[in-house]
Amino acid sequence: MINNIWTGDKVRLRAIVPTDWEKFHNNDLDSDSARLCDVIYFPRSEEGTKNWAEHQASKGPEGDSIMLAIETLDGNLVGSINTHGCDTRHGTFKYGVAVFREHWRKGYASEAVTILLRYYFEELRYQKVTAHVYAFNEGSIALQERLGFVQEGRLRNMIYSKGQHFDEYVFGLTKSEFES
Question: Which end of the chain is more exposed for a tag (fewer CB within 10 A), N or C?
Answer without folding.
Answer: N
